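Re: beginner question about structure tokens

> Can someone show what the tokenized structure looks like for a real chain? I only ever see the sequence side.

Sure, here's an example I had lying around. Input first:
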Amino acid sequence: MAEYILDWEVAKLWLVGALGFGKPLLHVYFGLGIFVAAAMLLRRPFGSLLPISVVVLAQTVNEALDWARYRLDGYPWGFANWAGDTGHSLFWPVLLFLLARYTRLGHQPQRATRTRG
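And the corresponding structure tokens:
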């Protein structure tokens, strides 16, 4: 199991290097990407609880792996790291979820209907 935990970190570091930006921005892109992909694949609107739940689950698993890495090799992990990663991952998906659920932005425009008279 330890091997997979360390492989996950290697994959994240490779992405950071390949894409040319830091881990916080990686969290932003992945949070938003997972949200949009979940909504599309599950055929649910952004205001549905299912897509946002997928993002929360993915972020929880990622942080659990980070915590496990801390336990394995002393990787710097703590409340500040957890809060930063979680905030970056969830900010835009939560904002889109709330806008879609509680404002007119999330509603389909009504089509005009013709009445025969």
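Each token stands for a local structural state, so reading them left to right follows the chain. The chain has four helices and no strands.
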